[in-house]
Amino acid sequence: MNTETSHSFAERLLKSRYIWPLAALLLMLIFNLLLDASFLDIHFDNGRFYGNPIDILHRSAPVALLAIGMTVVIATGGIDLSVGAVMAIAGAVCANLLVATDVSLFTVLVAGIASGLLCGLINGALVSYMGIQPIIATLLLMVTGRGIAQLLNDGQIVTFQHAGFSWLGSGTLLGIPVTIWLVLLVFIISQLMLRRTALGLFVEAVGCNSSASRYLGINDRTVKLMAYLLTGFCAALAGIISAADINGSDANNVGLWLELDAILAVVLGGAALSGGRFSIPLSLLGVLIIQTLNTTIMVSGMPSKLNLLIKALAVVLVLLLQSDIFRKQISGLAGKWRHS
Amino acid sequence: MQQEQSEKALFELSNISKQFPGVKALDAVNFRLFPGEVHALLGENGAGKSTLVKIMTGVLPKDSGSIQLQQQEISPSNTAEAQKLGIAPVYQEVNLLPNLSVAHNLFLGREPTRFGCIRWQQMAEDARQLLKRFKLNIDVTESLSHYSVAIQQLVAIARGVAMNAKVLVLDEPTASLDSSEVDTLFDILRQLKSEGIAILFITHFLEQVYQISDRITVLRSGKLIGEYPITDLPRGKLIEAMLGQELQQVTGEQTEATEPAKREPLLTVSNATVPHSVDDVSLTVNKGEAVGMAGLLGSGRTEVCRALFGIDTLKSGEIKIRQQPVTLNQPADAMQQGIALCPEDRKTDGIIGPLSIRENIALALQVQAGWWRYISPEKQRTLANQYIESFHIATPDSEKPIEELSGGNQQKVILARWLAISPQLLILDEPTRGIDIGAHAEIIKLIKSLCDEGMSLLVASSELEELVAFANRVVVMRDHRKVAELQGAELSSQSIMHSIAEV
Questions:
Q1: Is residue B311 within 8 angstroms of chain A, CB to CB?
Q2: What domains are there in chain A, each with its CATH number?
Q3: Å from B332 to nearest chain A CA?
Q4: pLDDT average, residue stretch A209-223
Q5: Least confident segment among A11-15, A213-217, B16-20, B395-399
Q6: Contact in structure between B335 and B364 (CB atoms under 8 Å)
Q7: With a cut of 0.85, is the ipTM above it?
């Protein structure tokens, strides 16, 4: 049992689940630095920081929020396809309140978040109490949710002027975009809630074996419901900052396909879609990989029609890097090569 | 018996070694199978039986040694390859596809086709013909999950036979069968044997070994102890070979079930009824008493356990704990009352496979403490290490995922999980199912010592001798009803059997 301590740092690092996602991110940054030595430069101007790193973090904020919720839902063995649509609903709710009424900013935010929680409640109830497959249950809201948002907006793009609300999407605090602070806040709170209490363990237990969890006295339905409430909350917040960023609610386009980016981020973080073990930090690493990739494609001046193709290739590469089998085969091949 | 030493082995493994992190699972083990024999592979938990089977069926690669089938060196790298070579495994837990029809399961991967389309009629007809050999008259178009585990097991064997298996590997095929089903299985095995198929048989029911086997190979701690013709190895010697010096513990003194003094009742169940599963059952468990529950599969044993743990709710009747009526709507309610349950189906209802031993042990205590009072990983580890040591759980440390342990060790972890919350009533449903003789003895010993410490136990089991060995009283179930309650002088495996069988 004492052998644990004898493992060297390098050995532990190689076994760590962080190593391959981190390696992928580093590789991408090195590639960018080779193209442009100033890629990672940050400069301070007019009371705020500018530069690619800040830009990447700011742009990845909505997906980061979605990924935090998605990680937990996937850990319970579920999935939430509706988060993009929930973003649209929350954005539409806030935009309409800002345009049509003069309620306080606080009320607007509460209404936006509440709309997301309501969506989460519907998803959670369908999955855990009605026993509908998560992918189907949330597909319902993925399709209808955007329709509801369009109804709220009466088919238009609803724009508003509200300095306080816009601050959430494009303002700064201590020189750093508010969006980054929000992600940090949600990350810290969720991490505390899940890892400093037993909730994380219960989520993993339910995700690994919900029947055995029931025999342990864990209320697996409640655990699943909570997970969908969390994604609803995160999606609403993501919708609010997206709306605040453009000073408007575009029900057709906000958060479009972002549920897939969030799922991809969780997978890039090494989580199994079948549920069980989860790590929010790893999922956020996955988010950074995706956003860095997007930025790389943009700044490297590659023809934009190749964007999606390049992104797909890079994602496959990162996933392969994480596969034990693939790495073994590569090192086997390399070994043969050296011998001959 | 019929094969002489001069005859060539059909299937031969020599000098097989396999190293796992921290454990030498197999150390230069030899194993031979002759055509037309049933060969029992025996050994206690962690002896290496499962590893050896996994190596011969291509699930695990061997570190060294050779595998020969009909004098040809083979090295299957997965089960499909092994099956193509004629080695058909039938695992403890049936590994077929429950949602497909029986016929489709039988011909999966080699469905009869015409112009690339499956000929369903033809497949069903072939399946019926095949199952006729097994005297199995069932609707082959029904999905497999529709049938009992026993029938699923026979289907798995039939599938192996249909693929022209030369070697049939049966890992605990009888663990979930009742005695008439076992007889059917054995009839089929004898028939297959006469057709020249070599059968490897792993079981923990020693009497079955003597019913069907021709030869026995014994492993202990990854080493080959010996290969014996069945006639040379009477039961006592066999146990000695399997356990080494530990023999004393197993045969043990058949403790006289101590007459319960006037003890106060802990659990009183009156006229409990759950639709379709428990019919008007009344029973009492006193403080510090071990009550056994006997009956065939489906007799209502498991269902009573489930109702007492709040998994199924009563439609009528009453449960009292310490004379107070209680309502058990969910397991949390039962845990609140100091009731714990080790479920019958360890794999689906007991272990949380990918989680560590540490987490599996700490979970019940954590649930009881509530989610906001987190038991830190350090505290969990201390708790787990305590049980790993006192229960002799074979693992390098508490971080190993529970699914990587053998059945007996998994069961010890589940027991530790419940003992950690210090229950007043511990319900054990088939605590020794699928566990071999060493761990079996340890678990029985543990049950006895818990009882001595004043814990109350309700143990459902199909092993009558086990029940007689430690129970103060035995409740006999049949057709969802309680049909007898035996204690004192009238308690013996014969009397239990009599009550079970009586019409």
A1: yes
A2: 18-323 (1.10.3470)
A3: 4
A4: 92
A5: A11-15
A6: yes
A7: no
CB of B112 less than 8 A from some CB of A: no
What angle do helix axes A178-195 and A61-75 make, rounded to 10 degrees?
A: 20
Domains of chain B: 11-99+143-247 (3.40.50.300), 252-256+264-338+424-503 (3.40.50.300), 347-422 (no CATH)
Calculate mean pLDDT across residues B393-412.
87
CA distance B344 to chain A (A): 11
In this prediction, residue B256 carries a pLDDT of: 46
Residue B12 exposed, middle or buried by CB count within 10 Å (0-12, 13-18, 19+): middle
Chain B contacts of A198, Cβ < 8 Å? Answer: 366-367, 369-375
Q: With 80 as the cut, is the pLDDT of residue A4 above it? A: no
- DSSP for A141-208 reads HHHHHHHHHHHHTTTS-EE---HHHHHHHH-EETTEEHHHHHHHHHHHHHHHHHHSSSHHHHHHHHHH
Cross-chain CB nearest to B354 (options A3, A196, A276): A276
Q: How much of chain A exceeds pLDDT 90, in percent?
A: 55
CA distance A54 to A295: 11
The interface residues of chain B toward chain A in range 200-219, judged by CB-CB distance below 8 A, are none
DSSP letter (8 states) at residue B260: P
Q: Which two tokens stand for residue A205?
A: 């237990």
User: What percentage of residues in chain B have a pLDDT greater than 70?
Assistant: 91
The residue in chain B having the minimum alpha-carbon distance to the alpha carbon of residue A198 is B371
Residue with tokens 């006895």: B448
CA dihedral A314, A317, A321, A326 (to 10 degrees): 170
* Best residue in A6, A15, A209, A278 for a mutation probing chain B (most B CBs within 10 Å): A209
Beta bridge partners of B281: B272
Question: What distance in Å separates residue B145's CA from the closest CA in chain A?
Answer: 18
Contact residues on chain B for A204, CB-CB shorter than 8 A: 355, 359
Give the number of other CB atoms < 10 A from CB of residue A153: 22
Calpha distance B425→B308 (Å, rounded): 10
At B283 the pLDDT is 92
Nearest-angstrom CA–CA distance, B494 and B250: 21
- Please tell me if residue B367 touches chain A, with a CB cutoff of 8 Å: yes
Put simply, whether B403 touches A (Cβ < 8 Å) is: no
Q: Which residue of B has its CA nearest to A207?
A: B352
Residue-wise pLDDT tens digits, B216-260: 999 887 889 889 998 888 877 777 777 664 434 444 444 444 455
CA dihedral A201, A202, A204, A206 (to 10 degrees): 160
Is B3 or B154 the better-scoring residue by pLDDT?
Answer: B154
Query: Shortest Cα distance from B312 to chain A (angstroms)?
Result: 11
